Input
Amino acid sequence: MTLQSFGGIHTEIKLDVLENYLDAYTKALKNQKFQTVFFDAFAGTGSIEVPSRTESSEGLLPFIDVTTSDKILEGSARRALKLETPFHQYIFVEKLRRKSNELSRLKADFPALANRIFVRTADANDELERFCKDIKKQNCRAVVFLDPFGNQISWDTLQLIAETNKIDLWYLFPAGLGVNRQIREAGFHEPHAESLDRLLGTKDWRTFFYETKIENDLFGSTERSEKAVNAKGITFFMQNRMKEIFKGIVLEDWLQLGSRGVHMYSLMFATANPSAPAINLAKRLASDVIKSRGAARNRRTSK
Ligand SMILES: C[S@@+](CC[C@H](N)C(=O)[O-])C[C@H]1O[C@@H](n2cnc3c(N)ncnc32)[C@H](O)[C@@H]1O
Output
């Protein structure tokens, strides 16, 4: 069996939140007339080997050090398949053939669900584009999980998800690893800027993430740019961007995740469905699962 090796306690927290949400979602919608779909856009293999090391569990409050041992975690795909109330359809997307082959083997492990499982060896953005078009014509609702290592998801993809009005979204937004690391004190490199434009769907971050400082000396004044955000501020920026396109809600609570005191990712939730009952349900379920894993209400205190 091919295992993926990454993460630590924050990986476990992220997957627990997802699993608890999927469990509550499928149970709550069990008797509805529409079908339910789980779309795992970065599905991996189904199992994760967590390397042995000591981590700071900043997803939890108060921050504590947790020693993880070498262990095998069930990944997002397996967790979705073992739910008490199954989805009608599971779409697992993975770019690497080696890993998607492993995903296909899940059909043997879950024979009762085999004809509901669809594995695609493809780019997440491409498959989501196709899926968002299809779902508009179908009587179904979906949960999409975006679990990238970095800046792979484009803003255009988020927009397509939002336009469906049918999708609940969990997004592991790479606020620290993907964005903050590229926003240097002294400015940004233009090739990195293009990747941020694509991720954030705007060039406005150039003015939001930097402040112009004016320095006066004997010879006059000079202007220079200074970095004005951290990963938390970047998350608020993204949250506000997402509020512009999701007609349901973008949850105020989100989870700060990472290793050794570094804020690497922000686990965020949004629903595209604008109907009041759908919003109320999604808000209640998502808030419950996220708070149970120690989310602080990450309110904006600074830029
Ligand atoms: C963090 S891992 C996902 C882990 C998975 N959710 C789990 O719980 O086991 C990210 C995965 O996305 C895959 N990947 C990277 N870029 C991708 C892309 N553009 N489209 C689809 N998959 C991609 C990687 O090969 C890797 O397996």
